[in-house]
Amino acid sequence: MALDADKILSFLFQLLVGIQLIAVAVLYVNVLPFPDPPPQKISNLTGLPTWNADSPHFTAINETVGVVKYVAAFITGVLAIICVYIKVHKKPPAQTPVDEPPIGNQPAAEEIIWTKLLFNTIITGYIIVTFIALITGAIFELGKLWSAFGIYHNVLELCLAAALLQRGTFNYIIGLIVIVVYSISAVAITSQLEWYWDVTFFKFQGKIIYFVIISIYY
Predict the structure, then answer these.
(1) Could you give the count of Cα atoms lying within 13 Å of 87 in the half-sphere of its Cβ?
(2) Of 5, 31, 110, 198, which is most buried by a Cβ count within 10 Å?
């Protein structure tokens, strides 16, 4: 009996949501009772507080969070590969793109090529910006100063979500306004929050974009 690809994808998405909720529950149980955040570590380079703390109990919590995070990321990656495999085999045969008649001296345009180029450009930019965020994090250490660099990692994720939602096409003016407002707001709010709320807010707003991308893709 042939399996319905849409039902399989729906099941995998529900399974993924369930796994993430279990991961949140495991983290919640392991960090109770919530301790008061210890003093922040000071960066040797900038002399500014970082998002690190010298505390055995806090270190143990971070290790637990790290293990659960990587396990959840591995499972998510495996499910994503399965979904890509299903979508590729479900995809109808590609049709030859039809050239649009040229207007004036403008060359013919093929929307499918432009769409792929846009998406690939965003992916390339995302990889570059992520690398820059890692390098700046290693130099300055994660903190409010680093958030000014790390936010561009989230900005490119927002562009990926827009590309998936709009099938690779979106209004550049509206997109630019959203990017500027989002990046300035996120960094400004992070800079005004006290430790440990600053790092919590910055990481949480980034995770929301991850979930949006996964929801759009599935």
Answers:
(1) 11
(2) 198
